[in-house]
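Data deposition worksheet. Section B asks for the primary sequence of the deposited chain exactly as it was used as input, without tags or linkers unless they were present during the calculation. Section C holds the resulting structure in token form. Section D is free text for depositor observations; keep each observation to a single sentence. Incomplete worksheets are returned to the depositor.
Section A, Depositor: J.P.
Section B:
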Amino acid sequence: MRVRVASPDYPRKAWDADGLPVIVSQPVRSIVSQYWSIDEFVYSVVPPQYVTGVSESAYQERISNVYAHVTRYKPVVATDPERVLRLNPDLILVSSTARADFTALVRSTGVPIFRMHTMFTTLEQVADSIRLIGYLTGQDQAAEAEYQRFQDAVRRARQRRPASSKPPRILGFGGRYSYGDETLFHDIVKTLGGINVGAEGGLKGYDNVSTEQILRWNPEWIVAGADPGKGRQLLAKLMADPAISLTQAAQNGRIVVFDHHVFLPMSPFTRLILDELGDRLYGN
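Section C:
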């Protein structure tokens, strides 16, 4: 993934995930996001009153990091193209995985629509996308502040593991799947000075994994996510599994369950897991 932009002067031009140039003629005052992680990028940079459309996930309190904003300003849910276009937005942001027919319909109207990479595999890609949102919306100063905030969290994470300690072996577990190489979780673990057990075991990307396989890998730490208030329940379920209960992680009380707000983000809010997992691994 490579961010490509032209001059900071208006009209501004950036190339989206399809390699197509998208031109924005002036600073944005009405912006629509159609994907959960893009919602989080936008609200991290743009004044919340400028956000007129969001994904359905933004209104799901159990996972949304922008729930307070959407319940206050009540942007529409951007699933219906006609409803979105009636908002007369200055810019629409969709995921590179979005339906092609939606994107084609909007392009035919002349409204700027940018297909954005959302399957990040590195923290650097997240940081670059913060600046991209600033460029596209005209909120360069706010984006730079958020970029520096994110990079500060990355720098803290790189400094957490004491030089005298061995790298902790960490498994990310999402119920039936784990995180291998070429995932953002892999880069998070690496940045924190750890070893991603899924990648060590040969996984690429996101893949199914059995609890018996987890026992064979025998991680020192297991990290999972749950809905707010359900962490103890998930922890008890994992501890009750006959295979997981025999791992070093379970035996040493090192199964960590974060709220989904912390565990799931692929956005500026990824800084939350950098700090909180660092605290668990190495202490405050």
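Section D:
The chain has a mean pLDDT of 96.
The chain has two domains: 4-154, 161-282.
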